[in-house]
Specification:
With about 525 residues, this protein is an alpha/beta fold. The strands form 3 sheets. The chain has an 8-stranded parallel β-sheet with strand order 12-6-4-3-2-1-14-13. The chain has a 3-stranded mixed β-sheet with strand order 5-7-11, with no helix packed on it. The longest helix has about 35 residues. It starts with a helix and ends in an 18-residue tail after the last helix.
């Protein structure tokens, strides 16, 4: 409803109470309603699922319309990100949040910092989703509150044009609440455990769940060694579990992102069940590193596979794990992706060891031969050395083209000595266009950085500590932080307002009228930043 419709509806309701509700101001109720657009996490999940579906269709029609997100480990970080996006770009269209299991493990576990191995409390994941949306909803309340104050000022000044302009802006207000792609790791257990956690995440507001094909009790970070995958049927059970959770809760267009770690995972914990040649279990087992054995020489406890009239013994490691043949990672990624999409997944995630458009495209081309509208979520990971990777890509391209590269040492291209060279400038341009290039060439619908705010928090804190505890002392804070906040228009320079002080004052006035004891009076030091 429009602002005026809310007021009219409340007027009618108050009048129906025969004077007992006359202390309630209908316009104040309208304001509070608009400041609290989303009443539950499920409302948020349904709203954002529709947005993602619309964005996916737009990308299918025009791959320049890809989407982006940054990983956020705290509600305040997510809130400031979305406030910044609205300030600089005027819209939140195609801008999401990413919830990283890595950052939950490293920053949000009661055990303290943990590696990304699913050892953190799984309840901390839905708790962070809820926290992020609490802060995003508060950003709406704060911004609308400022608009309401401007509306009151326009009315007091008799400025009808300004009043109408503000009413139109209120009626067409765009929320800070955007989709979150949320990392459910490998499901934290079996399919039932996956279902239970998925429900909690959806109830908290998640419209998109990202799940990976690693063994849950051997799960590793996607950029570490020792990754172990599961047979497809095991993984499909967890995809179905997520879909059942969405459907049970009425989020019928919820998004499932299936991640394959097969490119870097050379191990499996179990041999897939196969009923006939060429079925999905047989295809999974076909990548195992096996040796043919004589039936008379089968040893005690040996695991044997029968294929094409031969007996094969998969190589088993002391860890009891089975290994895949070297060089099969890309083929397994392609198979994993096709099978996932054929069994209810909406988007893919292929974890790679470097950011290389053609490497990604080489797999997506094969997937799209089977499923033409296959789309990828891609991790623009801080685990990649982007500078070195792209300088080496340019070096190799120049060398292949016959260009003289004798002035460069490929192994040392990270050096600051190369920063102003033509090679470095071309590499930086390739980094700048990587997302657009990947969206156009490699089917990447969504680009995210998993851990950016982990790194920015560390970098900014290091710079502040160096200055504040050094010779600059208080100037280290004032010059590098507060002065820049003021000049760049950073909203939280008025931190009392950001934390909700003005919203609280508005409520005090609604509840107590002229008797309200408000914090935002003339002696509030935040007035120095007006």
């Amino acid at each position: 409803m429009s602002y005026q419709d809310h007021i009219i509806q409340m007027q009618q309701l108050i009048q129906s109470k025969n004077g007992t509700w006359d202390g309630i101001n209908p316009e104040s109720v309208a304001r509070m309603r608009l400041q609290n657009r989303f009443k539950t996490g499920l409302e948020i999940a349904r709203y954002n699922a529709a947005i993602m579906r619309k964005d996916m269709a737009a990308y299918d029609a025009d791959p320049s319309k890809y989407t982006q997100s940054l990983g956020c480990w705290h509600g305040f970080i997510g809130q400031q990100k979305m406030i910044s996006i609205k300030k600089h770009f005027g819209t939140t269209d195609r801008k999401y949040l990413y919830l990283s299991g890595w950052m939950v493990a490293a920053l949000r576990s009661e055990f303290g910092p943990l590696p990304d191995q699913s050892m953190h409390e799984k309840t901390s994941v839905p708790a962070l989703i809820e926290e992020l949306y609490t802060f995003l909803r508060q950003a709406d309340a704060r911004e609308l509150g400022l608009m309401f104050r401007d509306l009151d000022a326009a009315r007091a000044a008799g400025d009808k044009a300004k009043e109408q302009q503000l009413l139109d802006a209120i009626d067409n207000y765009q929320t800070h609440v955007v989709p979150i792609i949320a990392d459910i790791d490998a499901g934290f257990g079996n399919a039932e455990a996956t279902y239970l956690l998925a429900k909690k995440m959806i109830e908290a507001g998640a419209c998109a769940l990202q799940i990976e094909n690693q063994v849950s009790d051997e799960k590793q970070c996607g950029h570490q060694d020792g990754k172990v995958t599961v047979p497809h049927e095991d993984f499909l059970q967890k995809i179905r579990a997520c879909r059942y959770a969405f459907l049970e809760l009425g989020v019928e267009d919820g998004i499932i992102v299936t991640r394959t770690d097969s490119l870097g995972a050379g191990l499996t914990k179990q041999i897939a069940v196969s009923h006939e040649p060429g079925d999905i279990g047989d295809q999974y087992n076909s990548f195992l590193d096996c040796e043919e054995v004589d039936p008379s020489k089968v040893g005690n406890g040996d695991v044997i596979i029968s294929r094409n009239g031969k007996l094969l013994r998969p190589k088993r490691l002391p860890s009891k794990l089975f290994q895949f043949r070297e060089g099969t990672g890309a083929d397994r990624c392609v198979l994993d992706s096709i099978v996932s999409l054929q069994n209810g997944a909406d988007l893919l995630w292929i974890e790679t060891e470097k950011p290389h458009v053609e490497q990604i495209a080489s797999m997506m081309d094969r997937i799209r031969e089977v499923i033409p509208n296959a789309k990828l979520v891609y991790n623009n990971s801080p685990s990649f050395n982007w500078t070195l990777n792209f300088r080496q890509q340019v070096f190799d391209a120049w060398k292949d083209a016959g260009k003289d590269v004798s002035a460069y040492d490929r192994a040392k291209l990270m050096s600051v000595d190369y920063d102003e060279t033509d090679l470095a400038k071309e590499a930086d341009e390739r980094i700048r266009t990587f997302q657009a290039d990947g969206a156009k060439r490699a089917g990447i619908f969504h680009h995210l950085i998993t851990l950016p705010t982990y790194h920015t928090a560390a970098l900014s804190t290091d710079n502040l500590a160096k200055r504040y505890f050094g010779d600059e002392a208080m100037l280290g804070y004032v010059k590098q932080v507060q002065r820049e906040e003021i000049r760049q228009g950073i909203a939280c320079v008025k931190h009392q307002n950001m934390s909700g002080s003005d919203i609280g004052d508005d409520h005090k006035e609604y509840f107590a009228g002229e008797a309200a004891l408000k914090a935002g009076g003339v002696h509030n030091t935040m007035n120095q930043f007006a």
